Structures are given as structure tokens and as C-alpha cells.
Amino acid sequence: MKISIALSVLILAIGLATGFMHQRQLTILRQDREKLAAQALKLGLHVDSPAQSGQPKITKRQREERDNQTRSVSSQIIAFARTMEEHDKNGSDSDAAFQKQGMELMERLMDLDPEQLKLVIDSLRADQGISEDTRRDMIGFSIIMLAEDHPAAALSLFTASSDLMDDSDMGQQVIISSLGKWAKEDPRAALAWIEENSKNHPELADDDTKCSVLSGAAQTNPKLAFQLLSELGLKEMSGAIQSITEAGKTPEERAAILTAFRAHVAGINNPAELDAQREEALGGLARTISGESFDSVTKWVASQNLSPEESDQFAGGISYDTTKAETGKWIEWMSKTLPPDKLGERVGDLVGQWTQQDYLSAGKWLSAEPEGPAKTAAVKSYAETVAEYEPLVAAQWAMTMPAGQEREDTLKSIYENWPNKDAAAKAAFAAEHGITPDPTEEEN
Fold first, then answer.
1. Are 124 and 259 in the same domain?
2. What is the C-alpha separation between 242 and 279, in angstroms, rounded?
3. Residue 316 within a domain
4. How many other C-beta atoms lie within 10 A of the C-beta of residue 40?
5. Cα 76 vs. chain centroid, distance in angstroms?
6. CB-CB neighbours of 92 under 10 Å
7. Does residue 170 form part of some domain?
């Protein structure tokens, strides 16, 4: 089932598409509040705390306040859902005020405990003023909010709302998000939930849900995550390894995951299987460096004593999306680190991405780069990438390469990518550089 336009508005408004960044910030704020509350208690001050352990006695007044809070949030989320449907009906975009309202609503939802969230969901289920699609999406979103701090309770509520969740994209998102959070605390319990509920819903036992457990477990116990990898009977191993390795967001987490991975593959005797898993793992670790500086990441790499094979596979995961303004530095790192037979491919891939995104910046870097194997590979990739749009510029760059097979191959590639609308210039280029057109091309 396609996600509704109303839900798309909600996703845009509150940042779901960026990995619930704001949720995490709110969680941190709540944790800080709990620390301050604990300090206050030591000083003899009594502070209400929504996350106290155990089941403290609740007074009648507190119960009334909780009920009023729950009713207030229920009314707000229903009103918000109706506004979303109006946006959908009118084809209008959400404004800053609407997005702010969504953020405030998310914060209020995160302050509710499982019992309160259940009452909110009951209110949503009973309300006839919103469509079934919107009701399902808002229930799913409420459960995802609950999963931040209470993933087991969130899945329990999901099971109770399965009539609204079956075959929906939101339902899948609820499951993956909740299982991932639960697996950080108790991966075995998360897997037991999958096993129990897959009896009636076999689709729950697919690789996506299992990978969400592996990702959650890897954040706190990467050794166990790799142990589970061997137990789950996954259809696709590469995606599972990627789920584990991309869970490492800090240098310390990456180091722990790499250590666990090396222990995991120590018993693999099949060279092809070892190489495939190492490529996924090291490439996955490289994909987590977004936002970190070149100096910080290369310092971490140096501390891990990567083998030549590991360095090459780490380089394979580096992309322009993560290197941005420091792409040139990463190419220089590759030239000093990678085996000569691997340098051309890795540099070529990165420069090709760079050229597609910002060919002016890539060309400026090329102009200042000293001659050497890295520059030769970079020029080849740059010329082949721009040939489709600026074939004469590409040819000029190709002619700066040392004479030999690589330059001839690059010129041939430029010819093959030459825009068809300029057939005369293409033929002249072929004649100038001794390129013989394919017979089928001459026939056309």
C-alpha cells in the first residue's frame, strides 16, 4: 500500500526522513532532565519524573492530571490529522507554523507512557472524522514515538492494532523501528517476538525485520550481532552485514564493530566468501563517516592497522556524498595507501561521482594536482564523465595524460560517449585520434 500524502506531509514536517534526528535530541533532553531530577532528590527536593522506575503510587490528583494530559494530546493529534487531510485535499504545502506544530506534537507524544499512548490510540480508532488511511498512519506514528523509550510496549500496541497495519508501509516502519530499539536492550527478546508473531504473519520473518534486530544489537553488542548473523538463516548476507557495520556512528563504535567482524571471519576458509563479507563490512564502515573530518577519520583508520585488502575495501565505501569538500584529500590518501593495482578503480569511482555533482570543483582540483598515478586515474574518470556534455573539454583533459594505452582507452571512451547530435564533430574526432567506428555505427 502506498504511503498517504498526509503522512508524507507529516514526515516532512517533523523530520522522519532524516532518521528521527529530532527524536534523539528530545530523548537526550529527557535524559538530562532525569539526571537533574535525581540530583534534586539528593538535595531533598521532590520533582515529578515521567520515567521513574517501578510503579509509584499515583494520587487522585495525579491521575486526573494524567487523564487531562492524555485527552489533550488525543485532541491535538486528531486535529493535526484533520489539518493534514485538508492539506492533502487542497494540494497545499505545509508551512513553518504547521511544521512547528508537528514538532511540538511529537515532543508531547514522547512524554506519554505506554498506558497513555494506548488511550491516545483508542481515541484515534474511535474518531470518525478522519479517513482510515490517516488513522492508520497516525496510530503507526504514535507507536513509533513510543518505541523510542518503550519498544516492547510499542510492539504490543502494534499487535493490538494489526487490523490497521496489515500490508501497509507504515506497519513495516513500525516493526523495523521498534525491533531495532528493542534489540539494543535485548536482541533475543526481539527475535522471540518475530518468531511468535510470524506464525500468523510469515512476512514478519523476512530479512528486513531480522536486519533491524542485527542493527540494534550491533549498537551495544557487535559480537552478539555477528553471532546472530550466523544463526538467522538470512537469504541475503550482504545486507545483513551492512546493517551491522553501518550501526557504528562514532570512532569507538566502529572500532568495536571492526574487532567483532574480524573475529567473525577468522574461521572462514573460503577466499571468495571472506572477500565478499570483508567488502561489505569495510565498505559499510566507510559509509558511516559522513559529517566527520578527513583528519579524524584517517586517524581512526591508522589506529585500526588495516591490511592492504581492508584499506582497499574501506576505500570502496568512500563516496562523494560523505567526503564533499575534502574529496581531494581522500584521493591523495588513496594514492598513498592503496595497492597500485587498486588505485585506478577507487580514484576513478570517487572522481566520477565528484564530477557528476560538481565538475567545476573537480576540474579545479585536477588543475592543481601534481602528475602521478592518482591524477592519471582522476583525469581518465573526469574526461569520461564530462564527455557526454562537453566532449571537447574531455578531449583536452585526455591529452594531458601520459601517452599509452590508458590515454587511448580514454579517447575511445570519449568518442563512444560523444553526443549523437554532433555527428560531424564526432567523426572528426575519430579521424584525428585514429579511432575506427564500429561497423554497426557506420550503418546507422
1. no
2. 10
3. no
4. 13
5. 31
6. 11
7. yes
Mean pLDDT of the chain: 84
Number of domains in the chain: 2
One domain, residues 11 and 145: yes
pLDDT, residue 280, reads 95
C-alpha cell of residue 251 = 570512532
The last residue of one of the domains, among 257, 291, 325, is 291
- The predicted pLDDT at position 165 comes to 61
Which pLDDT score is estimated for 148? 84
Q: Can you give the pLDDT at residue 136?
A: 83
**CA 112 – CA 123 distance, rounded (Å):** 14
User: Domain check: are 170 and 22 in the same one?
Assistant: yes
Q: Are residues 37 and 135 in the same domain?
A: yes
Please tell me the predicted confidence (pLDDT) of residue 439. Answer: 64
Cα–Cα distance, 83 to 106 (Å, whole number): 16
Distance between CA atoms of residues 389 and 140, nearest Å: 46
Cell of 270: 573460503
The pLDDT value given to residue 20: 38
Residue bearing cell 576458509: 269
pLDDT for res 234: 87
Q: What is the pLDDT of residues 399-413, one digit of tens each?
A: 999 999 999 999 999
Are 173 and 136 within one domain? yes
> Rounded to two decimals, what is the model's pTM?
0.77
Q: Tell me, yes or no, whether 108 and 241 share the same domain.
A: no
Helices 391-398 and 405-417, packing angle to 10 deg: 180
Distance CA 305, CA 202 (A): 43
pLDDT, tens only, 330-347: 999 999 999 999 999 999
Q: Does residue 74 sit within a domain? A: yes
What burial class does residue 126 get, using C-beta atoms within 10 Å of its C-beta: 0-12 exposed, 13-18 middle, 19+ buried? Answer: exposed
251 assigned to some structural domain: yes
Where the chain has pLDDT below 70, the residues are 1-58, 93-94, 162-167, 438-444
Per the structure, the complete domain to which residue 149 belongs is given by: 1-47+65-185
Both 150 and 210 in one domain: the answer is no
The rounded distance, in Å, linking the Cα atoms of 423 and 428 is 9
Tell me if 382 sits within 8 A of 366, measured CB to CB. yes
Question: Is 236 found in the same domain as 178?
Answer: no
Question: Which stretch of DSSP H or E encloses residue 410?
Answer: helix 405-417
Calculate the alpha carbon distances from 257 to 214, 243, 252, 307, 388 in Å.
12, 11, 9, 16, 42
